[in-house]
Design a protein that fits this description.
The chain contains six helices and five strands. Strands 2-1-3-4-5 form a five-stranded parallel sheet, sandwiched between helices.
């Protein structure tokens, strides 16, 4: 079993990365393999609505983009997808939305490889906007026919400067519980 964690933050070592790593610690303790994809070092070009993925039966995106090479395979191989994004002006980062648009179009143009996988999102903001971004990322899971586990609260936390998210005890506990629920669900589906 494997969970792909996607960090949509352009900051290395920031709060979003810390939240994903916190979830990964739980997955590892549960014996689940992880795969980390940082969009900081791999900014994916946005979808151009060229229709190439529909013409090739959803095998892959045909747009030339070295940052996107192999990404569809990573999504296909994962049993669960964990998305993380900071809030930028009330929404997810452009980096993560470019990725999701392209993965989503390939998925819907082919064999719907995301269907019945587990999906969860983590969101961090300085002050507000988490719920809008949380919903935005969860819409991707729902339209992709994925299964979304819950936690003790929304999977959000507060922090601005690198590392501040660790001071949000309730937010970090919520992430740990989410990861436990996600691990349980991935194992149940695999049975």
């Amino acid at each position: 079993m494997k969970i792909l964690g996607v960090c949509g933050s352009p900051r290395k070592g920031g709060n979003t990365e810390i939240m994903i790593q916190t979830a990964f610690d739980v997955f590892h303790a549960e014996g689940i393999e992880t795969d980390y994809l940082s969009l900081k070092d791999n900014p994916v070009k946005p979808c151009t609505a060229c229709g190439g993925c529909a013409k090739n039966g959803g095998v892959d995106c045909v747009q030339p983009d070295p940052a996107f090479e192999g990404i569809i395979d990573r999504f296909r191989e994962a049993d669960g997808i964990l998305l993380g994004s900071p809030v930028y002006f009330g929404s997810a980062t452009p980096e993560i939305m470019s990725l999701l648009d392209r993965v989503g179009y390939v998925d819907r143009s082919g064999d719907h490889f995301l269907r019945r996988k587990v999906g969860a999102s983590l969101v961090v903001a300085r002050r507000a906007g988490q719920n809008f971004t949380f919903a935005q990322l969860n819409y991707f899971f729902l339209i992709s026919e994925m299964i979304v586990p819950g936690s003790t609260y929304w999977n959000v936390a507060t922090g601005c400067a690198k590392g501040e998210v660790k001071d949000d005890e309730e937010g970090m506990d919520t992430i740990k519980t989410l990861a436990q629920n996600m691990a349980w669900l991935v194992k149940k589906i695999a049975d």
